[in-house]
Amino acid sequence: GAHIIYGQKVENITRDIGCVVYTAAINRNNPELIEAVALKIPMLTRAELLGQLMKNYDTPIAVSGTHGKTTTTSMISHILLEGDLDPTISVGGILKAIGGNIRVGNSGTFITEACEYTNSFLEFYPLYSIILNVEEDHMDFFKDIEDIKNSFHKFASQTADDGLIIINGDMEHTDFILNGLAQKHVTFGLNPENDYTATDIAFDKEGNASYNLVAHGEPKGRIALNVKGCHNVMNSLAAIACTEAIGLPLDAIRKGLLSFGGTHRRFEYKGSLGDVTVIDDYAHHPTEIRATLSAAKDYPHDELWVIFQPHTYTRTKAFLPEFAKALEQADHIVLADIYAAREVDTGEVSSKDVMKLLQEDGQDVHYFPSFEEIKDFVKAHVKGHDLLITMGAGNVVEIGEELLAEK
């Protein structure tokens, strides 16, 4: 029953509106935001609204981390559905199991992603707090890694007194985040000292992972995933730790994990151009790029092509050498212009800067200012059983979709 309007216009904001909810991604110069302030309409950020909604649930779960939030939230959602817990779900991607990104359940269980950008996740007070990883990102908001670590520590401290913190025990910031906190915690990771860990990791012919689960030092049998990469082994360990703590049996956890085949724009199979496989991935941080390209190595192919569209000028500038290093895993790299998102181009950085660093390292790299030129280049050069990945958080996905539509 909602009335949807596309396009931001002053006249969309009228005096009869009772409350305006806005996202952290909205620019402060947004005309609707300015008008709402001028009319003194009560306002909430999206995170504030979500935090208020969560207070109505007995079992709120918040999934935080620089990377992997959407995938891990989706994994847990599948397990909760398999366990008949009838959860309310808010996920940052399109999840096929619920036909979108929102599901309204009729139980006391609520799961959501908890994003650190603008400290949005500090509006949440979960019973189960998951911290997947803590790295530098969103440097248009945070001052440095210490600033980010402090935010995650505060987030962890807001876990309910009788709740549980589920944290990556392999990262260097774990002790800092947990320091002084009275809440119980469990760790997950590939180091055998963690409470939840994986041994004998293997990948099938499609690149999907499986492993032996060890929980609190006890072997629990084999876990099979329907997604690729060691990073998804880590995500699944966090999901297992959370859902086992809730009380779900391992059989339901296994079935839920196996039923999860990935979310929209996370190593998503888009189609084929002859024998060329086209994949799309949302990776827009060097760590995410490394994880995706590492997973691609276990996927059958001849040569690996990546069409990368950097996301935001501040992120590209902050991680310029790291982007180039991460992309080196590909055989061929094609660069599109930076996707501005909420930012304005100041001329300080461009995709040509990424190209220059890759060229200095002897990589086969190409830059084109338009999608049409990229498509023409791909049609002329990608061949055989090559793997083509469109990569980035902007609209680079359109290149693969248009190529498939034209075939």
Radius of gyration: 22 Å
Please state the overall shape, judged from the principal axes of the Cα atoms: globular
Relative helix content: 25-40%
Report the biggest beta sheet as strand number plus sense, adding barrel if it closes.
Answer: 7 strands, mixed
Oligomer: single chain
Structural class: alpha/beta
Strand order in the sheet with the most strands: 5-4-6-3-7-8-9
Distance between the termini: 39 Å
Number of strands: 18
Number of helices: 13
Low-confidence stretches: none
- What percentage of the residues does DSSP assign to strands (E)? 15-25%
Mean pLDDT: 94
Please give a quick description of this structure.
The chain has helices at 31-38, 46-54, 69-82, 145-157, 174-178, 230-246, 250-259, 286-297, 313-318, 320-327, 351-360, 371-381, 397-406, and strands at residues 20-22, 43-45, 59-64, 88-95, 100-103, 109-113, 128-131, 164-168, 184-188, 196-203, 208-215, 218-228, 268-273, 276-281, 304-308, 332-335, 364-367, 387-391.
Key descriptive features of the protein:
18 strands; 407 residues; 33% helix; single chain; alpha/beta
Walk me through the structure:
It is built from 13 helices and 18 strands. α12 packs across α13. It is globular, with a radius of gyration of 22 Å. By secondary structure, the chain is of the alpha/beta class. The two termini are 39 Å apart. The model has no long low-confidence stretch (mean pLDDT 94). The longest helix is centred in the middle third of the chain and has 17 residues. The strands form four sheets. The chain has a seven-stranded mixed β-sheet, sandwiched between helices.
